[in-house]
Amino acid sequence: MALTHNLGFPRIGAKRELKFALESYWKGESSRDELKATGASLRQRHWNDQAGLDLVPVGDFSFYDQILDTSFMLGNLPERVQGFHGDVLDNYFRVARGRSAQSAEEHADCCGGVAAGEMTKWFDTNYHYIVPEFTAATEFRLDASRLLEQLAEARAQGVRTKPVIVGPVTYLAIGKAKDDSDRLALLPRLLPVYAELLETLAAQGIEWVQIDEPILVTELDADWQHAFTTAYHQLKSCRVKLLLATYFGQLAENLYLAANLPVAGLHVDAINGRDDVLPLIGLLPSHKVLSLGVINGRNIWKTDLTAVLDWLEPIAERLGERLWLAPSCSLLHVPVDLASEQKLDPELKSWLAFALQKLDELKVLATALREGRAAVAGELAANKADLDARRASPRVHNPKVRSAVACIVPHLGMRESSYARRTPKQAALLKLPKFPTTTIGSFPQTAEIRQARADYKAGRIGATAYRQAMQAEIERSVREQEKLGLDVLVHGEAERNDMVEYFGEQLDGYAFSQFGWVQSYGSRCVKPPILFGDISRPRPMTVEWITYAQSLTGKPMKGMLTGPVTILNWSFVRDDQPRSESCKQLALAIREEVLDLEKAGVRVIQIDEAALREGLPLRRAQWKEYLDWAIECFRIAANGVRDETQIHTHMCYSEFNDIIEAIAGMDADVITIETSRSDMELLDAFDDFKYPNEIGPGVYDIHSPNIPSTAHIVDLMKKAAERIPAERLWVNPDCGLKTRQWGEVIPALANMVEAAKTLRTAA
Ligand code: GLN
Ligand code: ZN
Fold it and tell me: What per-residue confidence (pLDDT) applies to 105?
């Protein structure tokens, strides 16, 4: 009993082998065959790593994105790349990454420039997929070659395979109709292709197929619920057994629907959706398998195996052969192997589990259920000892931090006066012109900056030499900004490797892995810092750099911080307390920094909350609760300053309409946002009633090497002024400039400053 399986394995490789192979192929430094060989060897290794399971996923490997793979498998390619006569994999990368026109004229129809597919977040993870594109005319045609090849490889390796595919309803739900047509109208055309796929797999002798339908953990209206019933009734006659997989949350009101779909088995997330499990067992027809995701596929902590067994044993008793065990979701969202970590201190390391360790945990649980706990007594005892040590560790628990959080009172998050009273005081001090100009924080991270940081980390240069190198960069940024005539300057963030890691490294309660990479999209990976203990700030983190920068100029220098919500959302967080609790601790630490900056004479302080929206729960019904504490945390961090100090915040591209009240509730004096690509339409959300404070809509698209002309910027700002009174507008780029070159930044900002002057004289 208790068959074990896995929903998906990280494909990037423990040493990011896939990333490097992809990037070298894209640069033309290696051949397609070499890239394919790397893919094959990663798959082989990963199946080997999972060989102890009863069923191993096949089809979870991808050269870029599993949703884009699905689009290719279903023959749903965007029109702009159809008719390409080169290699399929190259066409696939054209959709994934876009391609600028090279010899546009002769090849306009085949391999000329194409726009990349849009990318968006995969549910509430930090993984981004390529959005399927539909129109009313979309037709589907099966191409199962990729999946069949991988299946053949796996079988040649002697692996017990379970193909993994994305289900039809989720596939339609996460895509976009380019012509605003009804995506659900495509279901009758899509289902025969799925039926053909399942038949193809059946013909291969496949018994079980995992069909992912995570959309079931979101709020579905009646049409979409109905689509589930239609789809699975139509697929029911296929000769494979379907394991319908949901994850990332609770089924809640979709529980009955999910339980009664005509499939052979259901996988549910028993971490985030644990409350579903007992009701589900009651509802589930007695022939169905129930797979429980009991190991957290989203974090890096060891599982409390004894606690899971206490809960699981009675369930196993009831379900017998019908119970399967798995991680909660694909392990795509965790790093591969804890054993690679050579520098993490042993105590902390003993609390963690990456993908391979999670699979080991799964095996221990299954053995305990099959043979009794005594069969794994050693493993259980060791697991308990590690968890007990973590619970008791003084490195995790800091009573001072606890009591500071307990003492949080509402006035901590309140400015002394309202925005209307603060602005004149700020204006009197800052003496800014109308349409003031500024930038979002970072200036180009040049090769020299990266070299100096690498040298310092490797011990090739000392602290003094490093500080001098960074000061020289800061001075360069300040001089350039003065020459350009910007109004509020920044120091340029030369000393920061990353906007979260930089703060994490200086806060107590944070740790850093060497190889804890997680795929963000394509070849891009992030290495989230590990928030393991109560957070405190032993010493100021930015004051020295900012005051140095301020000493170089008479213009106001903006202090630059990352906000508590963003630090939280881009970290691996604790599982032993609510996220809100960790966020409050971060808020208090950032507050101390804000107050120290103010004390040091800094008059403008920006607190970035680029990831605020990313933390929104999957279900809208839970948004308010999240926004309440997230905004409170920002306010605690920001609002301890005097009226005279101007607080800015910044957010990258984001939908604001549905969270505008929360954004207004932050009560920052100025918010800068990414808007240039939306032609200022995003500003519609910020009408006077809803948003009374100042706004800097981005006018320079920093993702592109293009230099915006003065006329274009003036035009954008005029559109902005149609929506926001001119006296509340700032002029700035969309986001930080760290990924650009000085050669692009200087002319672009010169045009921006010129545009501001034009606007002032016109006004
Ligand atoms: N201050 C940061 C920078 O300029 C903001 C980055 C971001 O919003 N992602 O780089
Ligand atoms: Zn940004």
Answer: 47
